[in-house]
Amino acid sequence: MDFGLQDKTVLVTGGSKGIGKGVALAFAREGARVAICARDEGPLEKTALEIKTLGAKVLAVPADVTDPGSAMRVIAETVRRFQGLDVLVNNAGGAQKFAGFWELEDEDWRQAYELNVLSIAAFVRGAVPHLRKSRAARIINIASTAGIQPGKSNPHYGAAKAAVINLSKSLANLFAPEGILVHCICPGPVWTDSWERTTTRKAKELNISYDEAAKLERAEDEAAIPLNRLGGPQDVASLTVFLASGQASWMTGSCLRVDGGKVRSML
Ligand SMILES: NC(=O)c1ccc[n+]([C@@H]2O[C@H](COP(=O)([O-])OP(=O)(O)OC[C@H]3O[C@@H](n4cnc5c(N)ncnc54)[C@H](OP(=O)(O)O)[C@@H]3O)[C@@H](O)[C@H]2O)c1
């Protein structure tokens, strides 16, 4: 299938690791020009090199998406380098603290909202004037199944991701007349760097090895997934590429799950 993404410019926030890195590499394989941003320059440069090795044009911009002004700066650098912007993938997200309701403080709620929701608003505000000039403009926001089907813990994260889902639909309505198509993807559990950090913490808490903790983490989640495996970044990346492509030109406002069947409802 021809996705028609050759020479399209794609910006992936949080593109240095995990799902964002998988998404950036997938676009590079399609011949797109790829801009990535993240805070830590080491992994950012490493991923940029991997993208270059695939033969794609790449720009790496160190930035914290929660810093006021960072969105404008990253977008300006992207547009200066590649003379435009076609696809914005708002992937940077997560939470500084994963915990239950009683362990969370106001600051944790604020931080989760800033990282997951306000950053998207800022990047969309900065990107739309450029997306308006594209003939195949897309905004794809990475939310989470936690925003649809919350568990017992991390209510701040789940509530922020629910806001991302709602915001995505609102933006889809707003920008449809201008041909800017907006989607939201809700991954289920995907093994990434963020999981490695959780596993390291769990190993310390339980006084067991990293491998034992990883086995426990995987077993707990796999048991709740009908397809019986955790996802990988590529599982999310292939859907992102499809939604950005000309093959998905009669879709907007979709909220799609990539979760091995974890969420129990059909809708
Ligand atoms: N993995 C899962 O199971 C899962 C499930 C559902 C949804 N998600 C969502 O998928 C997205 C990616 O998650 P992931 O698991 O791939 O995370 P990850 O492995 O921790 O990678 C996160 C990426 O975002 C960057 N990032 C984090 N905070 C940032 C900030 N303030 N400014 C700029 N860049 C930032 C990180 O680089 P730096 O740290 O260097 O900044 C890194 O490149 C998130 O929105 C997450 O909520 C993940």
Question: Which percent bin holds the helix content?
Answer: 40-55%
Overall number of structural domains = 2
Uncertain segments are none
* Oligomeric composition of the shown chains: single chain
Helix count equals: 8
The CATH architecture term of the largest domain is 3-Layer(aba) Sandwich
Helix and strand sequence: EHEHEHEHEHEHHHE
* Mean pLDDT value: 97
Query: Pairing-aware structural class of the strands and helices?
Result: alpha/beta
Describe this structure in words.
- This protein is α/β, with parallel strands linked by helices and 267 residues long.
- The chain contains eight helices and seven strands, in the order E-H-E-H-E-H-E-H-E-H-E-H-H-H-E.
- It folds into two domains: 9-190 and 236-258, 3-Layer(aba) Sandwich (Rossmann fold), CATH 3.40.50.720; 192-230.
- Helix content is 46%, strand content 14%.
- Strands 3-2-1-4-5-6-7 form a seven-stranded parallel β-sheet, sandwiched between helices.
- The structure holds NADP nicotinamide-adenine-dinucleotide phosphate.
- NADP nicotinamide-adenine-dinucleotide phosphate (NAP) binds at residues 14, 16-20, 37-40, 43, 63-66, 91-94, 115, 142, 144, 187, 189-190, 192-194.
